[in-house]
Amino acid sequence: MSNQAELVRGQNPRACCAPLTRAPLGEDEAAEVAQVLKALADPVRLRLLSLIGAHDGGEACVCDLTVGFDLTGPTISHHLKVLREAGLIQSERRGTWVYYRIVPAALESLAGLFAPGLVPAGAR
User: Fold this and answer.
1) Domains of the chain, earliest start first
2) What gap in Å lies between CA 21 and CA 102, rounded to an integer?
3) Bridge-partner residues for 99, per DSSP?
4) CA distance readout (Å), 116 to 17, 41, 52
5) Which residues make beta-bridge pairs with 61?
6) pLDDT digits (tens, 9 = 90+) for 51-104
7) To 10 degrees, the CA torsion angle through 67, 72, 74, 79?
8) How far apart are CA 104 and CA 60, in angstroms?
9) How far apart (Å, rounded) are the C-alpha atoms in residues 103 and 84?
10) How far is CA 119 from the centre of its chain?
11) Does residue 14 contact residue 2 with C-beta atoms inside 8 Å?
């Protein structure tokens, strides 16, 4: 797995990746980044990520995440699993409850992907 994709998936603590406009992505790297972006492209998952990040202490119990959705518990769990597999959130079981928190490096990496390159657009 490439450094950029690992970082986007929250698995590599190294410095943030280069913006998309600085160097072309390879085929594998593009597929891995696309998986993360697909995880974010769902409105329910985007709301869940926002709820987790905005929750006191930066983590939320699954019991706090089901409020406000007209979805079953298993459906919410599925969406959380997709976010976790994309490396955007981490989970920790405490007794009967599971707590979720955002992986800051993953969000920083995503922001880095869309940062403008150093070459002005007119200079290409």
Assistant:
1) 3-115 (1.10.10.10)
2) 26
3) 61, 92
4) 12, 22, 28
5) 99
6) 999 999 889 999 889 888 999 999 999 999 999 999 999 999 999 999 999 999
7) -60
8) 15
9) 9
10) 27
11) no
